[in-house]
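Tutorial handout. Part one gives the primary structure; part two gives the three-dimensional structure as tokens.
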Amino acid sequence: MTGFLAVNHYLRGEKFSELHSHLISSAQKMNIDLKLRTNFDLLFESEIPDFVLFWDKDINCAKMLENKGIPVFNSARSIELCDDKMKTYLALDGRVKQPKTIPAPLSFFDTDYTEFVEKAGEALGFPLVFKECFGSFGEQVHLCNNVADVMKYVNGKPFLLQEYIECGGEDVRLEVVGDKVVAAMKRRNENDFRSNITNGGIAFEYTPSEDEKALAVTACRELGLTFGGVDIMNGDAICEVNSNAHIINIMHTSGVDIAPLIFEEILRKI
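Part two.
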């Protein structure tokens, strides 16, 4: 059995190489020859593997592989829904609880969004959360107390404004594989409303409730994910869903190695 591990050509560093090495090692133990390929490499690759574990957000590259008949996990469509925070919200709207969210209206040129921010502020109340539609590790997410705060972060990129739900700098990350929650951790940040470990959050062992498990599984199912990391606030509201969440931190915290579970699910599907 041969697979490709698709990663981004331009993301380097120990954090990423540690993850890639762990995935390749885990695959080897299951008699899977998992070969590292970047999204750059894949544009010119002639070999056809049995599957691709797509640990990146290059949706066009993922779709090109699917068009060749290669099974890709997660699918290009699922990655697209998770990568764009507004698309995630819309896909889950009416299916799970989420903070009230309003997207910035589309503009084709440099625009003064003050009128929109004022109107959205009236609807959502302050403080509210500013999020660029695309971003990772809690970056491009800001707590804003007034219109001027929001306008500091408007930079021409697609963004949304979201109701602020007080959660004390805490959330829980549940990792779903197939239709099952396989690992969980609580994250807490004493100095920031964002609980992300990259932003200074600390991870703790956590046993999720049955309601939290059901919520995470429902979110992944609605987004078409084979595996995913689901962030839940206050036990009942989806914050974000990640199509290729960094699994090393949750592995160290929970003691559960998610990598072989992902490969087992992929093998079951192909």
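Part three, for discussion. DSSP finds ten helices and 13 strands in the chain. The chain has a mean pLDDT of 94.
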